[in-house]
Write a structure and sequence with these properties.
The protein has 152 residues and is of the alpha+beta class. The chain is built from three helices and twelve strands. Strands 1, 2, 3, 4, 5, 6, 7, 8, 9, 10, 11 and 12 form a twelve-stranded antiparallel β-sheet that branches.
Length: 152
């Protein structure tokens, strides 16, 4: 029996194809991927999927990274968040984020909020993929994963 290894870029590509909802007969052009750098994170990102499940809610979580100040701000699905972060060797951490404490209604917002909290508190790998010219980030660790699209 022969064993096969799938690279992180190949896994990110497969996830990205599912994220952007390309039909099976579509051709995908210009696919690239790899470990994210600080420059990659800069700007606004909208969460499209949590743990492989697309978000359908009217208000999706959004994160904005300011790489000049090493800060992140945004909405996690339930609350506003902000604080400092570090990105070293493709690993993102933000263990001291501050957050509002709003009521969180609905399963989807709670899943998104919990996943974002897990990833920032315990560290996560960040992989950037470009599919047909669209930038997609996957932030993941052993317990959670979010996929984001560039907004600005």
């Amino acid at each position: 029996m022969q064993a096969f290894r799938i690279s992180a870029a190949a896994a990110a590509f497969a996830a990205s194809v599912a994220l952007v909802g390309l039909p099976a007969c579509s051709s995908v052009a210009g696919v690239t991927g790899g470990q994210a750098s600080a420059r990659t994170l800069d700007g606004g990102w909208q969460v499209q999927a949590v743990d492989g499940k697309p978000l359908d809610g009217a208000r999706k979580p959004e994160l904005t990274f300011d790489t000049g100040k090493n800060t992140v701000t945004g909405f996690d699905g339930c609350n506003r968040i902000s604080g400092g972060y570090s990105l070293e060797g493709g690993r993102l951490t933000a263990p001291r984020l501050v957050s509002t404490r709003m009521a969180c209604l609905g399963d989807e917002p709670r899943r998104a909020s919990a996943a974002i909290a897990e990833l920032f508190a315990n560290g996560a790998e960040v992989v950037e993929t470009t599919v047909a010219g669209e930038r997609v980030l996957t932030i993941r660790n052993a317990k959670a994963e979010i996929r984001l699209r560039k907004t600005q």
